[in-house]
Design goal:
Catalyzes the ATP-dependent phosphorylation of 3-oxo-tetronate to 3-oxo-tetronate 4-phosphate. By secondary structure, the chain is α/β, with parallel strands linked by helices. The protein has helices at about 10-20, 60-75, 100-110, 160-165, 175-180, 180-190, 205-215, 235-240, 265-275, 285-290, 295-305, 320-330, 330-350, 365-375, 415-420, and strands at about 5, 30-35, 50-55, 80-85, 115-120, 125-130, 130-135, 140, 170-175, 200, 220-225, 255-260, 280-285, 310-315, 355-360, 375-385, 390-395, 400-405.
Amino acid sequence: MLIGVIADDFTGASDIAVTLSKGLLGEGGLRTTQYLGVPQQPAEEQVEAGVIALKSRSLPAQEAVQQSLAACEWLLQQGCAQIVFKYCSTFDSTDAGNIGPVLDALAQRLAAHNVIVCPAFPAMGRTLYQGNLFVHDRPLNESGMEHHPLTPMKDADIRRLLARQAKTRVSHIGWQQVVRGSEALREILQDQTDEETQLVVVDALSDHDLTLIGIAAAGEKLISGGSGIALALPHNFISAGKAQGINSKFPAIKGSSAILVGSCSGATRGQIEEHQKQHAVLAIEIEDVMAERIDADDLVDFILTHQERCPLIYSSGDPAVVKQAQQQFGQHNISQRLDRLFGDTARKLVLEAGIQRLVVGGGETSGAVVSALNLGSLQVGSEIDPGVPALFAQGERPLALALKSGNFGRRDFFSHALNVLAGSTH
C-alpha cells in the first residue's frame, strides 16, 4: 500500500477513494479499496491506496483523535509512504474540533513538519483564496453551511478556524505563490522544515492548482484536505515507477433498489423534489420517529411495495423545521434515533429482502447504514457524479452502493445513480 487515507465520514471516504482510483486524466489511478472502520486484518496484496472511513466528524474530539490514530497505525503497518487526512470541502467542524485536534495528533505521530491544509474542491464550487473558503460565489459562512445542524460554519477564514481548534501553529501560502508552479511551492514548503511544525493553509481556485499542490507534496508524510488534494498523488507514485496506473471497472447490478436520505442540505432537498416528480417518495416526520409511531418494518414495506417506482425515503427538512425539532427533542437524540432507524431499515432491506442497489444521501446517514450492514470493505468503481463513486461489496449476494454527501450530485442524482449502478452510462 502506497497511500493511506483517514476520512472523517463515509461519503467523504468514497469521494477521495474515487479520486485516487481515477488519477489524472489519461494516466490512470491506484488500485483503491475503501474500508469501513479500521480493519482487523492486513490489506490484500494488490491494494495500492487504502481509504479508512470513520464516523468521527461529530464525535468528541478525543474520540476522533483516538480513532484517527488507530487508523494511522494500521495504514503504516500496510507500508503506506504517505498519509492523507480527508475532511469535508466545507471544513465541517466546530471550534472544539475535530479537524485541528486530529491534525495535531497525526502530525506528532508522523513527525510531519509542514502539513498542507486545503479543503478546496473546485468541481463542486469550493475554492480557497487568501485563506478564505468559498462555496461558489459565497463565503462559507454565507453559503447555507451556517445553518448546518451539527457543524454550523460561522467563519470563512480557515486560518482562524484552525487557530481556534489546533495547538499547532498555522501559516498560509497564497494563490499568487501556488501558480508559480509545483517546484516553487515545494521550495516554500521545504524552506521551513527545520522550524516548528505548522499547518499550512494553501489556496486553490482550480483543479490545476490542486494538481500543482499535489505534485509539490510528493514525499510529504502527512497531507490534509478535501478529495481534490488527492488529484495528483497517484501521479507521484506512477511517475516514480512505484505504480502502473489502472482504470477501475465495475460490475452492473440490475437487482431491486432503495434510496435512503438523511441530509437536509439545500441540494439534497432539491434532488428529492426532482425525484418525487416521477418516483415514489416517503417523508419521515421527526415527531413520528421520536414517538415510535414508525419503524424499520414500515419503511421496508414502503420500499418493497413501490419497487417499480425507484422508492426513496427521507428525513430531510427545511432548516427552520429541523431547528424547531432539535429544540423540542434534542439534536443528539434525533440524530441517534434516525441513525438507528436508517441502519435497521438498510439491514432488513439488504439481508432479508435482498435489495441489491442502495443509494444513501448524507454523511451521517451513510455512516449509519454501512455500519449496520457491517460490510468491511468496498471496491471502488466508476464515478457517478463528481465526488460520488459506484461502490461494490462482495458477498453471497452482490451489493452496489452510492454514498452521497449532502451537497453533491446533479438535480436528478438519485435516479441517475441507480442507472449507473445498473450499468447504464446515461
